[in-house]
Amino acid sequence: MRLIVADAAGAGWLRDKDGNDHQLAADSWAECDVRDTIFTGEGETAWVRYREDGRQVDVQPNSEYHIEYQNDDVIDVRAASPAVDELVAATEGIGIDEERIYRALATVQGNAEAIEQVRALFLDRTGRTLDEVLDDELSGSELDRAMAYLR
Questions:
Q1: Which of 79, 98, 114, 146 could lock 108 by a disulfide, CB 3.0 to 4.6 Å apart?
Q2: Which long-range contacts (CB under 8 A, 24 or more apart) does 82-86 make?
Q3: Strand, coil or helix: 2
């Protein structure tokens, strides 16, 4: 589900939640989801205009700007992305890499919000819950160790 909260235009790029880059144009506005990032290169300037209050933000050359949005019902998964990248890579294909799973889970251990973000992003990327994949791929003490990181 997309939550469009702003529009962007100018010289630069919009990176969507899936990591795809879309070139911005000065003469047309592109919709921005809460999970999008705008970035500019040398000599490029972009603008972000928020729909709710009309506020406009200038994105200066050689910078990165994350779309702002505050809502307790929306989870910002950008912080969880590196851990999920590792978890997906560790569980894809034939066999799994248990140590890679443990290292990825250790990065969010004890942080309930980060754990929730990892679970949401993993489901979004794979179509399966993290707990389901861990239960299918691990057993016994390996599963217990992995699940301990998620408590």
A1: 114
A2: 82/107, 83/107, 83/108, 83/114, 83/118, 84/118, 84/121, 84/122, 84/125
A3: coil
Whether 55 contacts 41, CB under 8 Å: no
Answering whether pTM is above 0.70, one says: no
Q: Is 108 helix (H, G, I), strand (E, B) or coil?
A: coil
| Rg over CA atoms, the chain | 18
CA-based nearest residue to 133, from 108, 81, 106, 96: 96
Separation CA 101–CA 142 (nearest Å) = 10
Cα dihedral: 113, 119, 132, 134 (round 10): -80
What are the pLDDT digits (tens) for 20-70?
Answer: 999 999 999 999 988 899 999 999 999 999 998 999 999 999 999 988 877
Kindly report the number of other CB atoms within 10 A of residue 13's CB atom: 18
List, in sequence order, every residue forming a beta bridge with 59; answer none if it has no partner: 46
DSSP string covering 39-97, please? E--TT--EEEEETTT--EEEE-TT-EEEPP---TT----GGGHHHHHHHHHHHSSSS--
